[in-house]
């Protein structure tokens, strides 16, 4: 989610991130941001500190108190060291001073992902496969496995939360969470897992991708 | 028919009737008037002659020895005659009679009067030819007719103009209050200027009603926004807490399942609230509409996003956008949601191996650009069609996880973009949603409202 009151900047950010397979919501006020945060499940919050109806730091403090799980990158024109320290103290994952370059932002976001999920490099080894979170590719012995966008989303989400059961609902929220009233239909997730298994199975047996009966799916490493 | 038209018609017909009536009656009245005038003039002349005789004696007309006197004017239009008659009853009449004058017979209106003078009796006759009477009558009639026509026309025009002036406030009330109103937010409550009490009362009543409607509408919107806002935060807290609980490896399977079920309920609750919030935000005009959206691109984006669902249901999607259309002053994200929801429904309610058509192009008759989403699904029973876009309306075919808000969202977004929706459905064959896009060049809703 992009919390930014400057309209053109927010649009540019959203466009850039959309190009890199993020789906974005934009909130231009603290109130709208609170609504969005409560309503959606986000991986990242890009937070501008100067908002028309409140302080971004205040928003961050409240969100963290509400057990917000998304990673927060604070964006601000205020370069003050105190702001930076306070932001990080409140639980922000990183801090970028305006003006910043968009590739820089992307690199920082990838770094946060790696840090959060305990990866030392952008690629993860899963069975005989190598999953590149940054390039959004899955390779087997140097050969690329052709996955659809959604299939990659599901696989990478399971890999990032490796050794943990993810329910069909959690996967649905992650993959389609930005769409309103599509209902929850576990068939879609099951179908994607089936396709994933078939596609990966052409290279090697994907026995790391487990079905946990009655609960959901897990990638075991 | 409009009141003004009705009045003009009435006016024209009544004037016409009056004219016909007058043209019919006028000759009768005219000839009567002409006759009376002639009689009056004959009587005046008689008095004149009698005065002359009293003053100068009978010798003024009859010289000694003469027993009669007669005089015609040159064209024989008038005559005066005096003759001695034997004593008898008094004569004093005016009547038509024919007289031989020289060698022709002329019809006259004749006044006959007998009187005695110096022991003798005389009969005075004064005549006026009826031909000359008729001529005056005809002239008079012509003038009267022209005058009538002119007066009739002038008063008609004056009536119509005045009536139009009188009705002007009513027209303004209809235009400003009733016809051009789409949304309570765009109500124009400025009073209408009129000196007619009835209109003022009407306008005041309508304005009062509109104010009430607007107030309750705003209350409803604020209620939805506030509740959604207040409910979502605690729900998010619960959601994150459940997420964290699921990672606890000491949890028994039984409890895991319970948490999952709770999460599912929670998800449903959040879905409903998020949808309501979205509707309320669109209605509150909280989304910017400054994108120009290409229909073709929109169709491509939705087709791509929905590809995986098609595969799961083994459906084929056929996008056929022959001609592109650029919709200005739009919100791309909202339009995506609109089309996505429609296509998603077309998937949900389709038969296995069915088809979905996305057809964009101008309509043959009107030339208006339309985007159609057609499926080969089970169709919608006719009785349900009017309620399709109502909130929480769920068709008989809806699954348990449907909120019944998808089409409400579609309708709200369409309204905000001045897109009309037509639904046609044949049970057993399929359903078609046709989005009629606003004509480019037509003013966007907000601009139009502001201009009012």
The secondary-structure element order of chain B is HEEEEEHHHEHEEHEEHEEH
Largest sheet of chain B, described in full? Answer: 5 strands, antiparallel
Provide the domain count of chain B.
Answer: 3
The proportion of strand residues of chain B reads 15-25%
Q: Classify the fold: give the CATH topology of the largest domain in chain B.
A: Heat Shock Protein 90
The spatial strand order of the largest sheet of chain A comes to 2-1-3-6-7
Rg measurement of chain B, Å:
48 Å
Number of alpha- plus pi-helical segments of chain A: 8
Q: Roughly what is the average pLDDT of chain A, rounded to an integer?
A: 84
Unreliable residue stretches of chain B: 442-452
Looking at this structure, what is the CATH superfamily of the largest domain in chain A?
Response regulator
- Number of DSSP E strands of chain B: 12
Indicate the low-confidence ranges of chain A by residue numbers. none
Characterize the largest beta sheet of chain A: strand count, sense, and whether it forms a barrel.
Answer: 5 strands, parallel
Sheet with the most strands: spatial strand order of chain B: 1-2-5-4-3
Biggest interface pair, residues each? Answer: A-B, 38 and 48 residues
Tell me which oligomeric state these chains represent. Answer: heterodimer
CATH architecture of the largest domain in chain B: 2-Layer Sandwich
CATH class of the largest domain in chain A: Alpha Beta
Helix content of chain B: 40-55%
């Amino acid at each position: 989610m992009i919390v930014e009151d400057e309209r053109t900047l927010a649009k540019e950010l959203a466009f850039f991130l959309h190009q890199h397979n993020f789906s974005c919501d934009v909130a231009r006020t603290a109130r709208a941001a609170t609504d969005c945060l409560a309503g959606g499940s986000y991986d990242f919050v890009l937070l501008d500190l100067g908002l028309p109806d409140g302080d971004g730091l205040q928003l961050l403090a409240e969100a963290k108190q509400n057990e917000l799980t998304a990673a927060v990158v604070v964006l601000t024109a205020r370069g003050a060291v105190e702001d930076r320290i306070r932001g990080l103290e409140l639980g922000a994952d990183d801090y970028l001073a305006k003006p910043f370059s968009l590739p820089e932002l992307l690199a920082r976001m990838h770094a946060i992902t790696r840090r959060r999920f305990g990866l030392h490099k952008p690629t993860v080894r899963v069975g005989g496969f190598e999953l590149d979170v940054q390039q959004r590719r899955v390779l087997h012995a140097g050969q690329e496995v052709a996955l659809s966008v959604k299939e990659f989303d599901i696989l990478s989400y399971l890999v990032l939360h490796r050794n943990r059961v993810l329910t069909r609902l959690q996967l649905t929220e992650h993959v389609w969470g930005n769409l309103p009233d599509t209902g929850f239909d576990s068939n879609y997730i099951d179908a994607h897992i089936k396709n994933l298994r078939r596609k990966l199975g052409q290279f090697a047996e994907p026995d790391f991708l487990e079905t946990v009966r009655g609960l959901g799916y897990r990638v075991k490493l | 028919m409009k009141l003004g038209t009705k009045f003009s018609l009435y006016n024209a017909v009544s004037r016409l009737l009056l004219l016909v009536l007058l043209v019919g009656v006028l000759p009768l009245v005219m000839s009567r008037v002409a006759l009376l005038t002639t009689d009056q003039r004959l009587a005046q002349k008689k008095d004149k002659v009698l005065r002359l005789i009293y003053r100068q004696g009978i010798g003024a007309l009859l010289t000694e020895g003469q027993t009669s006197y007669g005089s015609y004017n040159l064209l024989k239009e008038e005559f005066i005659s005096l003759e001695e008659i034997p004593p008898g009853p008094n004569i004093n009449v005016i009547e038509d009679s024919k007289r031989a004058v020289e060698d022709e017979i002329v019809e006259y209106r004749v006044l006959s009067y007998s009187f005695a003078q110096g022991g003798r009796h005389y009969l005075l006759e004064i005549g006026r030819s009826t031909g000359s009477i008729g001529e005056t009558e005809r002239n008079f009639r012509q003038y009267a007719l022209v005058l009538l026509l002119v007066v009739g026309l002038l008063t008609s025009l004056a009536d119509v103009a005045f009536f139009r002036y009188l009705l002007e406030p009513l027209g303004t009330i209809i235009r400003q209050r009733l016809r051009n109103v789409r949304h309570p937010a765009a109500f124009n409550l400025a009073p209408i200027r009129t000196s007619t009490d009835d209109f003022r009362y009407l306008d005041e009543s309508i304005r009062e009603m509109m104010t009430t409607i607007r107030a309750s509408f705003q209350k409803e919107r604020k209620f939805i926004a506030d509740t959604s806002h207040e409910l979502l935060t605690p729900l998010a807290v619960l959601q994150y807490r459940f997420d964290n609980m699921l990672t606890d490896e000491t949890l028994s399977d039984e409890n895991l399942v319970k948490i999952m079920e709770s999460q599912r309920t929670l998800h449903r609750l959040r879905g409903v609230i998020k949808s309501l919030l979205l509707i309320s935000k669109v209605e509150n005009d909280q989304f910017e509409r400054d994108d120009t959206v290409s229909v073709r691109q929109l169709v491509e984006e939705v087709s791509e996003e929905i590809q995986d669902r098609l595969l799961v249901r083994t459906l084929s999607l056929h996008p056929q956008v022959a001609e592109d259309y650029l919709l200005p002053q739009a919100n791309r994200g909202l339009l995506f949601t609109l089309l996505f929801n429609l296509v998603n429904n077309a998937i949900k309610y389709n038969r296995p191996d069915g088809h979905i058509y996305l057809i964009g192009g101008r309509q043959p008759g009107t030339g208006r650009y339309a985007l159609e989403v057609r499926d080969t699904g089970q169709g919608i029973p006719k009785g349900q069609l009017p309620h399709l876009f109502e909130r929480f309306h769920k068709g008989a075919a809806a699954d348990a996880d449907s909120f019944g808000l998808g089409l409400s969202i579609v309708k709200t977004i369409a309204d905000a973009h001045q897109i009309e929706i037509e639904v046609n459905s044949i049970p057993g064959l399929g359903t078609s949603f046709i989005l009629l896009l606003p004509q480019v060049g037509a003013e966007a809703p907000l601009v139009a409202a502001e201009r009012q």
